[in-house]
């Protein structure tokens, strides 16, 4: 297997693709089984924890991976394929042809999974809000009245801002830290129950991610032995 180094263009591009439900990069989850680069032509192979993983999630990851790699400077052709999945043939063909999710299952799919993607982006935002508030609490700070410009720099803040930007939420320094997933300020009297809900969302996402890792390692034992950083290969 020839895989670009972590800092290489192709691997870095794949690292921007997240499982929509688990909110983690497909590279860290072990879903990229192969990524080869030869004279600007890139071949990527993806695998999932089970043969019956939701086809709409699978489609999003294949399509997102193709789009991400195509944007890498120097790449002239991209072939991204899902393997060992009951709908692999349909998904791979639709992504290659740019036919959309409805093109994968004509007459069956009710539309493109845009609303699904939005739902999971909102969940990812709530999870990041809980992580941010947990860090502030550990540092002895109260999150209720803080504005973004008053929040100390941290990985949690960077992730929160990224999730806000994805949803088109206010990322200005004057914006309240506590915004709900629709961009509305959370009233002080509602903060406690809203943040408990955000924590439940985070725990659910992280629990599902751990479960999927276990399934993947059971299905592909070699995945458990690999370091998340791929071996050096041909850079783009």
Structure, explained:
There is one protein chain. With 236 residues, the chain is mainly alpha-helical. 48% of the residues lie in helices and 8% in strands. It has helices at 9-14, 26-29, 55-70, 88-97, 100-104, 114-138, 155-167, 191-219, 221-225; strands at 32-38, 41-46, 77-82. The protein has a three-stranded mixed beta sheet. Helix 3 links the parallel strand 2 and strand 3 (77-82). Helix 6 runs antiparallel to helix 7 and helix 6 (114-138) crosses helix 8 (191-219). The chain is elongated, with a radius of gyration of 19 Å.
Overall geometry: elongated
**Most strands sheet:** 3 strands, mixed
How far the N terminus sits from the C terminus, by CA atoms, comes to: 16 Å
How large a portion of the residues is in β-strands, by DSSP E? 5-15%
- Would you identify the regions where 5 or more consecutive residues have pLDDT less than 50? 1-7, 231-236
Average predicted confidence as pLDDT: 89
Radius of gyration: 19 Å
Class inferred from helices and paired strands: mainly alpha
How large is the count of helical segments?
9
Q: What does the oligomeric state look like here? A: single chain
Strand order of the largest sheet: 1-2-3
The percent range for helix content is 40-55%
């Amino acid at each position: 297997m020839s895989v670009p180094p972590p800092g290489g263009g192709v691997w870095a591009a794949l690292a921007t693709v997240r499982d929509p439900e688990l909110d983690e990069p497909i590279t860290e989850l072990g879903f990229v089984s192969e990524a080869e680069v030869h004279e600007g032509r890139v071949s990527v192979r993806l695998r999932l924890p089970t043969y019956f993983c939701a086809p709409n999630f699978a489609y999003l990851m294949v399509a997102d991976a193709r789009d991400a790699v195509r944007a890498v400077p120097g790449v002239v052709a991209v072939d991204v394929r899902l393997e060992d999945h009951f709908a692999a043939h349909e998904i791979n063909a639709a992504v290659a042809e740019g036919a959309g999710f409805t093109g994968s299952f004509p007459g069956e799919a009710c539309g493109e999974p845009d609303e699904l993607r939005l739902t999971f982006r909102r969940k990812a935002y709530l999870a990041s809000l809980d992580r941010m508030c947990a860090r502030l609490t550990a540092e002895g700070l109260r999150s209720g009245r803080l504005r973004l410009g008053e929040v100390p720099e941290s990985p949690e803040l960077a992730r929160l801002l990224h999730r806000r930007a994805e949803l088109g939420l206010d990322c200005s320094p004057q914006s309240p830290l506590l915004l709900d997933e629709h961009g509305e300020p959370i009233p002080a009297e509602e903060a406690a129950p809203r943040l408990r809900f955000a924590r439940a969302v985070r725990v659910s996402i992280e629990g599902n991610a751990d479960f999927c890792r276990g399934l993947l390692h059971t299905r592909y034992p070699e995945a458990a032995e690999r370091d998340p950083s791929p071996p050096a290969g041909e850079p783009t």
